[in-house]
Amino acid sequence: MQAEQPFSGLVVLELASVLAGPSVGQFFAELGATVIKIENTGTQGDVTRKWKARSENPETDISAYFSCANWGKRSVALDLKKTAGLQILHKLTAQADIVIASYKPGDAEKLRVDYKTLSEINPKLLYGHITGYGTQNPRAGYDAVIQAESGLMYLNGEPDGLPTKMPVAFVDLFAAHQLKEGLLTALYMREKTGKGQLVQMSLLDAALTSLANQGTNYLVAGFEPQRAGSEHPNIVPYGTIFTTEDQKQLILAIGDDRQFRNLCLVLGQPEIAEDILFSKNSARVKNRLVLNEKLKMLIAGFKLEYLLTELEKRFVPAGAVRSVSEALSGDAAKALQFKTDYAENGLSGLKTVAFKLEKPMNDHLLPPPHYAQHTREVLQKLAGLDQETLQKLEAEGIIQ
């Protein structure tokens, strides 16, 4: 029998698409909440259903991209522009604990699915709203554009190359984590006060806060961060990639002088760590080019597995640069993949919840839903609609 989950009994309505909002929805689903994904009948659902890699099955409406953020949900297709469709959503709102929305400023108000409207129906409602640039800027938010505008893209890439977008929509993921934290805080406050509230998060704010030490390098020291490949502006050698004798890539993450001394011992050149040019991190930062050339030549004389073994023995942080397929074949990644009795066409996915609780969490979620797969089931159970009403709404195109 499945153990009681942390959010069992919690009902979440997801009025969001693409990645940021749906990631938050999947987080709650993984922890036991009933998550209802409201999909637009006009667009035939979340746009990411159609974002497919070349090797994907063209016949299914569940793309790999869609799968990354929609496990454990039930899909309900509604036309919210029609009065009857909106009334159904309002009935579901009365049963809900949380709404996750990702509308441009003003759009939710036009549809009458904004916090003010829905909280009048359900005063205990928590409403998490993701925008691109905040509530006062009507621009739609796109991860790639915000990576550019926030300074993240400027910092990413080789020193002599162009600014480079990160290969995953990290701004969406940062924003999702921030919104989760906000909703959990609001949920905790509701336990004390009995009142719901609006939780707002913008993609731009998430991106700016993620500048972290690069941002404070500028704010505190007036240092304008520049592209440095995988190098670190404050620590050397940290993030530096070297090629071994067997033509494999090794990354170092040396955080202190002791680790650097041990690195030099493993490489058979302990005197480098005593050289005044390299003995302290501050000196290594100033002389990084000279040091990197020395390390490049030394590391090229060793095989990867030998170095990884010896460096680990001496507690020197290092790792192999692995492909995605190599990384996902490891035991850690296998433990993060969903197990399901409903898998179709080899459907798989990675959990958004990586932490472990003392009590076991649900490891057998429903797979990502087909478009409109659960419309009748959910509207019967939560909105109290009978078969005759459902048939009439279907015939009128209000539900699918």
Automatic annotation (TrEMBL):
The molecule here is called CaiB/BaiF CoA transferase family protein
Q: Which InterPro entries match?
A: CoA-transferase_III_domain, CoA-Trfase_fam_III, CoA-Trfase_III_dom3_sf, CoA-Trfase_III_dom_1_sf
Pfam families xref list = CoA_transf_3 (PF02515)
Q: Which UniProt keywords apply?
A: Transferase
Q: Name one GO molecular function term.
A: transferase activity
| Transferase keyword on record | yes
> Which SUPFAM superfamilies does the record match to this protein?
CoA-transferase family III (CaiB/BaiF)
